[in-house]
Write a structure and sequence with these properties.
The protein has 6 helices and 24 strands. With 406 residues, the protein is of the alpha+beta class. It folds into 5 domains: 55 residues, Ubiquitin-like (UB roll); 56 residues, Phosphatidylinositol 3-kinase Catalytic Subunit, Chain A, domain 1 (Ubiquitin-like (UB roll), Roll), CATH 3.10.20; 55 residues, Ubiquitin-like (UB roll) (Roll), CATH 3.10.20; 92 residues, Resuscitation-promoting factor rpfb fold; 96 residues, Barwin-like endoglucanases (Beta Barrel). Strands 19-23-20-22-21-24 form a 6-stranded mixed barrel. A 4-stranded mixed β-sheet has the order 2-1-4-3, with no helix packed on it. It is rod-shaped.
Length: 406
């Protein structure tokens, strides 16, 4: 009996232990279920990524602490940190980025922003960027923390290319960089002002003069000279052509400089005589009839008292020059200072044709003195002194009649 009693007591104790254990487990389960059931469901978005969070946090600040989010001054948060957490709340958090912005290589400024793109940042900071400005990134480029952005402001310069002028926007720092950006070819003879290495400023005009050097080969006629011979067998005042004159032909090779399509200089570099000119020889009568002869011929003779028999007439090729021509000293071969006497009538001659110091009359020029020589003045060619370059260009080249008076 006693053993039965002890067995019953042991069974009861074991049963109570199990009941206690089951009760504790049930209570723990109920508490756990109850704790989880009382959590609030919150939707949290960070940097565009969204997740559903269940939390017992009382405030938004506590919620972010649970998520290890440290909110800084320039960050963007959809709620105040002190706002209470409610079921179904949407919390959006955007951390700010540190962006470095430099304009025209000046001091860099740092901005803290939650903008998504470069364009949004510029709009946010009211930084105006023109179409012609040089922006280091596309406006649609996504911002990244620590990004460096540079802006170079464009400015206008006046560009004259070969005589054609236009206004051009540029961000170039030197003239050479500007020329490269314009995709302009500068040839060896072209003249660029200012030089390529010079710094470029908004008020710096750029001039590119197009220069060409060409060879011009010209066939030119050379006028014949006229030789007058006194002939005592011919009655005074009468003339007789002994031999007809004939023009010569010379091929002249010129080096011509052309700037922006206009000839600016011409230099004779070679001359070849293709055909020599032949002078015209005229006999001038000097025979004076006697009174008896005149009576027998029933003629009256008038004796000329002029000096036409002492002059000779030449037909020559003429050009014009000034005292300021390239290589000119302004003083003639006979010592005449042309710069001090701009109104002087002086011609350059070949002394073998017209001796220096001879008085002459030139068709279209007037009376003058043969007072100068020139390297290209050979044979039947003369050069007329005029006071200005414009008059020299206006005279050009022509064949003229020249009377040798002395």
């Amino acid at each position: 009996m006693e053993n039965k009693k002890k067995g019953s007591q042991s069974l009861f104790k074991n049963t109570m232990v199990w009941i206690s254990m089951i009760s504790v487990a049930s209570i723990a389960f109920l508490l756990t279920v109850s704790y989880q059931a009382t959590k609030a469901s919150v939707q949290v978005t960070q940097n565009g990524d969204t997740e559903l969070v269940r939390t017992h946090a009382n405030t938004v600040g506590e919620l972010l602490n649970e998520l290890n989010v440290d909110v800084q001054q320039h960050d963007e948060l959809s709620h105040e940190l002190s706002d209470p957490v409610t079921f179904g709340m949407d919390v959006t958090y955007i951390p700010s980025k540190s962006i470095n912005l430099a304009i025209d290589n000046n001091d860099t400024e740092t901005y803290h922003t939650t903008a998504r793109t470069v364009g949004e940042l510029l709009e946010e900071e009211e930084v105006d960027v023109k179409e012609q400005d040089d922006l280091s990134h596309d406006t649609e480029a996504a911002l990244k923390d620590g990004m460096d952005i540079q802006i170079e402001r464009a400015f206008q310069v006046t560009f004259n290319d070969g005589g054609k002028e236009k206004e051009v926007w540029t961000t170039a720092s030197t003239v050479g960089e500007f020329i490269d950006n314009q995709e302009v070819t500068v040839n060896k003879l072209d003249e660029l002002k200012p030089a390529e290495e010079k710094p470029l400023q908004p008020d710096t005009p750029i001039t590119l003069t197009r220069v060409e050097k060409v060879t011009d080969i010209v066939d030119e006629e050379v006028g014949f000279t006229v030789e007058t011979r006194k002939d005592n067998s011919i009655t005074k005042g009468q003339k007789e052509v002994l031999s007809a004159g004939e023009n010569g032909l010379v091929t002249r090779e010129y080096e011509v400089i052309i700037k922006n399509g206009k000839e600016t200089s011409r230099e004779l570099i070679d001359e070849t005589v293709k055909k020599e000119s032949k002078k015209k020889v005229v006999a001038l009568g000097t025979k004076v009839q006697t009174t008896s002869t005149a009576s027998s011929n029933n003629a009256v003779t008038t004796v000329s008292r002029g000096n036409s028999d002492s002059s000779r007439t030449l037909y020559m090729h003429a050009t014009a020059y000034t005292a300021n021509c390239s290589g000119c000293s302004g003083v003639t071969a006979t010592g005449i200072n042309l710069k001090a006497n701009p109104g002087a009538k002086v011609i350059a001659v070949d002394p073998n044709v017209i001796p220096l110091g001879t008085r002459v009359w030139v068709e279209g020029y007037g009376y003058a003195v043969a007072g100068d020589t020139g390297g290209a003045i050979n044979g039947n060619r003369i050069d007329l002194f005029v006071p200005s370059k414009s008059k020299a260009l206006s005279f050009g080249r022509r064949n003229v009649k020249v009377k040798v008076l002395d």
